[in-house]
Structure formats: structure tokens, C-alpha cells
Amino acid sequence: xxxxxxxxxxxxxxxxxxxxxxxxxxxxxxxxxxxxxxxxxxxxxxxxxxxxxxxxxxxxxxxxxxxxxxxxxxxxxxxxxxxxxxxxxxxxxxxxxxxxxxxxxxxxxxxxxxxxxxxxxxxxxxxxxxxxxxxxxxxxxxxxxxxxxxxxxxxxxxxxxxxxxxxxxxxxxxxxxxxxxxxxxxxxxxxxxxxxxxxxxxxxxxxxxxxxxxxxxxxxxxxxxxxxxxxxxxxxxxxxxxxxxxxxxxxxxxxxxxxxxxxxxxxxxxxxxxxxxxxxxxxxxxxxxxxxxxxxxxxxxxxxxxxxxxxxxxxxxxxxxxxxxxxxxxxxxxxxxxxxxxxxxxxxxxxxxxxxxxxxxx
Amino acid sequence: xxxxxxxxxxxxxxxxxxxxxxxxxxxxxxxxxxxxxxxxxxxxxxxxxxxxxxxxxxxxxxxxxxxxxxxxxxxxxxxxxxxxxxxxxxxxxxxxxxxxxxxxxxxxxxxxxxxxxxxxxxxxxxxxxxxxxxxxxxxxxxxxxxxxxxxxxxxxxxxxxxxxxxxxxxxxxxxxxxxxxxxxxxxxxxxxxxxxxxxxxxxxxxxxxxxxxxxxxxxxxxxxxxxxxxxxxxxxxxxxxxxxxxxxxxxxxxxxxxxxxxxxxxxxxxxxxxxxxxxxxxxxxxxxxxxxxxxxxxxxxxxxxxxxxxxxxxxxxxxxxxxxxxxxxxxxxxxxxxxxxxxxxxxxxxxxxxxxxxxxxx
Lengths: 362, 362
Prior knowledge:
2 copies of one chain form a homodimer. Chain A is α+β, with helices and mostly antiparallel strands. Chain A folds into 2 domains: 8-95 and 103-191, Ribosomal Protein S5, domain 2; 196-358, GHMP kinase, C-terminal domain (Alpha-Beta Plaits, 2-Layer Sandwich). Helix content of chain A is 38%, strand content 20%. Chain A has helices spanning 2-5, 78-94, 126-142, 149-155, 211-221, 223-245, 249-268, 279-295, 316-329, 352-358, and strands spanning 8-16, 18-22, 27-29, 34-35, 39-43, 50-58, 65-68, 71-73, 109-116, 167-170, 183-187, 195-200, 300-304, 310-315. The first copy, chain A, has a 5-stranded mixed β-sheet. In chain A, α2 (78-94) packs parallel to α3 (126-142), α2 packs antiparallel against α4 (149-155) and α6 (223-245) runs antiparallel to α7. The radius of gyration of chain A is 21 Å and the shape is globular. The N and C termini of chain A lie far apart (58 Å). The A-B interface holds A 221, 223-224, 227-228, 231-232, 254, 257-258, 261-262, 264-266, 268-273, 275, 278-279, 282, 285, 289 and B 221, 223-224, 227-228, 231-232, 254, 257-258, 261-262, 264-266, 268-273, 275, 278-279, 282, 285, 289.
């Protein structure tokens, strides 16, 4: 308020990355960003991966401007504009048309700076955290308190899921105007505290085909995607909610792996085909299956978004052993001490049987 | 006949490889080898890739024996036994129960030797040519003249398609006993003499998951395969027959690529997922799309069976240029003069525009 009185206001927010376990791929409305199927994700802790965005408004600013990771970017991007327009529209509505002299003027230009602490556009859902963060920062700037997943969705579909922690469903919705295509928290993070997420960065490079273009080509050309959206996902969504409800890692992990594979299958069924998985991704998949087979049940589950990087779900008691398996299969070379970041991982010795059954040539 | 009188008879046959453009993947009856969908293939000339099988019967042989590529193999394999049993049953039926003294005794033991002039079990349909050849050699040995695709099918499903040249449909059939699950020639090879096939051997290694086990796992676990078999393939089969009828390479090539991709998509939708394509396969796919994009229409079409090796369809006037593109993208190293085998390929210079647009780092 002090700042606003002097004609300057600032707000800073952070937003988390979310990892879909029932995948979103394909829009039924590309302008409003309405999906062809519902999806379900796990929101990661912000301690490790997050976006931080600061939005400032001032009567002294002469134009809207945007910086991403320290580099100026195009504030005129239609999706950034859609978020700005929607937040301002809601702010205007809230003030009921009457101009509150003390409130921040909606006509002030804004400056926005956003930073990720992880590689951008490498299939790590950076746009989800980015747009969720943008919308949250703008909402705070303008003093909005309502649920804004519908606005975040206009930036990037999966951004709506990053507006909540824990387990989040983005429901497809039925209305053509998208007002029922919202994120809903299925369970808070406290519901399943033992669940851990490992992000295996195979490559920090930009992906060859962006999600927006890729999913549109898939919608237009893949007969399997249509069947997945209409028939397979509704069944899987109900199953996944039940597995989360029951904290059933066997069911959760199996279905997460199947759904990741099916998403990549529809990319391959796209024409021309889209490949996000590389030979390294495939080695991680095979490793996870060998590891689970050795233990006789599902101890780790992989999922891959639109890129080669693996996300591994496991329960807390499995992490140290599986990280040791990863170290043995993919020995750190030059980047030794950078191999593991994040929460401290205990050390674990592998039994000779486990090593023999699971570890292959680096 | 001379040999038969002395108690020894021999017959030698060759059989061709066939390459499916509408793929077979999945059985509805694993014993009778009845497929979940019809398929359609192009039979290759035998000048380049073939199997040669000699079958001999003698009263002096004390047991049935089998050699594959010079190494003795298990003649008791259920599929070899199924072919032997069916051929003998037909021979017995033909003789009407009455034993012809001059005819080769059906009770003689047989020796069979089979050779491929290409890598076995590397996704080059070696079992198709192998079982087609086995059945043909046995039929000649026993003097059978009828159409035997139904018997070849009992050895390996796709073997029934290698019983004909040109363009061949293996119709799914409806009967539980499989008597209508037969191969039919759609058009003879003379119908489209300009069509050429290039086999790009990415790896001669054995595939990690055999077709028989792989397709069974797919039938049990892939929801997308079920949809493909029931809904997608019937439409595509009719389209492909029309493209062949019209000698429409654009339509033929596009659909062949889409169907290859969809088959591999269903492998990825299998649980645990099956990967036959490698990073090298993917580079060939991307190269084909760049090459076609440069020319503005479909000049080459890829298809991949259950392995990383690519089969490329092209019309005769495209082969020299595309082979030159391949030479530039995958320069022959140690195996220089073995790089191209088969029909003579003329030399072609690449235009700078083509080279710039299509050739990437080796």
C-alpha cells in the first residue's frame, strides 16, 4: 500500500513445478486452452524446483516489459497478454467499476521478471510453473484473492495445476467458454508424505518440437490420441484418484508408467512422428523395470513429459538405494559432485544380487 | 521319382521376404496363429533377400532333423511340427487313404536344411521367409500342388504372405478354425514395376524382445492396440488397396509410414514397453521427412518391423539420389564397399540446396 501510494507497487511469488501422472496432450480449443481430456498431477516441493516472479506496476513505466531468466522477452506474446488481460478484467470487476483512489491504477504499465532454477523448455514443465507464477504475482499485485487456475490455464494449460500443492486434477470441463475447465486439489501434500520425486536430467537442451505445436499436430493426425482422450483417460483418471486415495504405490506407479508410455505412443502415432524419448530415456525405463522385477513389486515408477528427462516416483525408503543404482549405471563423469541435488540422499550399499540383476554397462 | 524309388527324395525351394505396409501385431488365437487384424505386404524380389530350404526324406533316416544356417536346430519346435503335421495330413488326404507304392512314404523321417542370405531375427522377417520356404519345400517333396498359405501361417503368421509375390493381403478371417485366415494376392509384382525397396541394416543383432512374446504382451496390455485392430486397420487396409490399385506413391508412402509409426506406438503402449526403434532409426525417419519436405511431396517412405532396421520404399527414379543422401548422412566407415548391396544403384550428385536442407551431421 505504501508503495502504491507513491505510484509503485511490487509483488513477488514463487510457483512449483507439477508432474502429470495422467497426461495432458491435445487441445479442443487452442485459443482458450481447453484440453481434450482431464489430467492429474503431483505438485513438487518448491524447495528444489520453482519459478520466482516479481511483478511491478508504476505510473513511471512507459511500457509493459518482461524478463525471463534475466533476458528480456516478448511481453506481447498472446499468452502473456491473455493472462494480463484476464487478471486486469477480474481486478476491474472486483472494484465494481468504481475507481478506488488508493488502489493501484489498472492503467499503469507493468514490469515482470521471472526466473527458473532449472532448465527451461526441456520438458520439465517450466511453462507451467512460469505462468502459474505470473498469474499469482499479478493477482497479488492487484489484490485479487480468488482462485485463478482458469486464468493460469490461459497461459499454459498445465499451469492451472501448479496453482495448488499436493495432488491436482485439471478437469476437462464441458462448457465451450472454458469456465468449468479448472484445477482442483484431489489431496493435499500431507496426504502422502512418504512420496518422493527424483528428476533425472538427461539433457538440458531445448526440445526439438515444442508442446504447443506437437500436441496440435497430434490432435490432427493421431487416431490413437483420439481414442486415448475419449475412452482410456476417463477410466484411468478414476483409477488414479483411487490409488492416491489409498496411498497405493503399486497401483499409482504402474498406472503412472503406463500413462507416460501411452502419451509417448500417441506422439509416435503423430504424423510426422514426434520423439521425446532418447536411447538414454529408454535405458532408464528398462532399469526401472529391472529394479522392480528384482524386488518383485513396484518400488520406482518413471514418467516422461515432452522431453527426454525422467521423473521417478518412489517412497522415501527406496530413494537411497535407487540413487545408488543410478550412480552405478550412469557414473558421474566430469560433473561428479553435481550429480545429485536437492534433499539429502542417504547412502546405500547394493546387495550383490541387486547389482547383478539390475546394473548394466554404463 | 528315381530318387523316391531308391527310398530317397529331395526338394529345394526358395522363398522371399515380405515387408508389411499395414502391420500385423497380435494374435487372437496363439495356437492356430490367427491375427487380430488383416495385414498387407509387398513381397521382395528373391534375387537379393531369400531363404533357401532343402527337404529330404529317406527310409535310412532314423529321425527328423533340422539345420538353420548350417547349425542344427530343434526339429521338435511346435511350429515346425505344426507345419510338418499339416503338410503330411494334406498329402495323406490327397492320396485318398490308399497307399501308392511308388509314392514317397509319409512315414520316412526327413532332414531339412534352411539358409538365409540376411541376418536372422533382426526384424527382417526372416521367420516369414523361413516358414514359407519350409512349407514349399515339404509340399514339393510330397507332391502337393494346392495353395498352402494356411499351412505356412501355422509356422509364422506373416509367412503366409511370403507364399505370393507382388502385393499380398493376409485376411484376418472370421472362423475359429482359421480356414479363412489366408493370404491373397492383391496385385502381381508386374502391376507396379517402378516400386523399389531399400533395406537399411542398422543392426544385425538379435532383437531384445521376440515378435511372438512381444505381440502377446501387447494384446494383453495395450488399449491402443485393441483400438488399432478393431477400428483403424480396417479403414487403412481399404485405403492401401486403393493406393496400390492406383499406383499412387504419395498415398502409399504416407500410409505406410503412418502405419509403421502406429505399430511402434502400440509397442510403446505395451507394458512393460517394447522399443524396437533406436536413435539411429529415428535419424532415418527424420531424414526421410526432411527429404520429402525438400521435394514437396513423398519421394521415400520408411517402414520398420520388429527391429531397428529401416525398409525404404521409393520409385526407381529416386533411388540413386536417396542412396547418395544416405551415404552422406551415414558415411561408410570400415565396411566401405559393403555399404550397398543388391541391384546396381546409379550415382547421383546432390544439389547444394538438397544437401543443405537434408544432410545433417553423420
